[in-house]
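Reopening this ticket.

The earlier resolution said the output was attached, but the attachment link was broken on my side. Pasting everything inline this time so it's all in one place.
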Amino acid sequence: MVARIGSDEFAILSPVDEKGLNTLIASLKNVFFEPFGIISELFVTVSMGVVCWPGDGATFDELLKHADMSMLQARRQGNSSVQFYNPAFGKHIQSRIELENNLRRALERNEFTLHYQPQIDIASGAVAGLETLIRWQHKDGRLIPPGEFIPILEESGLIIPVGNWILKNACSQYVAWRLQGMAPICLSVNISAPQFKSGDLPATVIRILAETGMDPTCLCVELTESIVMENIEKTISTLETLRKLGLSLSIDDFGTGYSSLNYLSTMPITELKIDRSFISTIPHDRNNAHIVNTIISMAHSLNLRVVAEGVETAEQLHHLSTRQCQMVQGFYFSKPLPAEKLLEYLAQYEEAA
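Inline output:
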């Protein structure tokens, strides 16, 4: 028995044993392996959640609920995954729902804060930039790691209002620092895929620049490789608009995605940030050292500035310096700092330099 239970969801009820179930799953995957002939060839992936009666539920409603939970887990895994039901899914999903509900209230309760990690110019030794990072202080006092709540922000769509809040508050804070005597340095803010794809990012940036008085030449927008490699023509148009405003444009976590050198050369980007996963093992890991050296050389050939993330040792700094990497950031210099401690850090850093 097959029933359509949603726009893209179907339920299949089949009286089979374990062997028959595995055969059915394989048959369904094979169906979706081949393209569908709709105007042209269309490839479709399928995510399957599997439950068995009576072990996974005594009633039809229970079975359907647990199958849906399993399907959601399979969808998160991607690549046409199949997921059998596990009772732990219920606790995980309930926890996620509670976390999402708390996230929806976090902006209203002012539970989000911004921290700033200094970026150091290797040649001069001076602080030349700051990367903006969000932190969430939950109402119960817990500090929730970004890795836990940012994926939920992205999945729920909350990342757009939160991302705009980050951009506006970071710009406002920067202007306040400048009024207190801070030298003009570059402020970097990460832009998420949903923000970039929303279509109104340039208008949002223009509005925030006007509202805060932020100097656009001191603002750098960071985007991941995966974002800029989607819909190349539209991406280039959006980037060119931002560049004309005076902003710098950076490709974050470079080396972890897929980029075409040809496409990179046509984009109005100004900076590449080497992902910390490559920096953490240099200079001892020859493969990563070679990758880092290649990225730096490629960036120089394209007249792009290079920033290395996650620098934690003098050896790493020395390796990057000898390869003409321009800027670095990481715990070797400073952890991300709350706004109220940044000016103090800058003063102490200048004294020690």
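Reporter confirms the inline version is readable. The first helix runs from residue 18 to 33. The mean pLDDT is 88.
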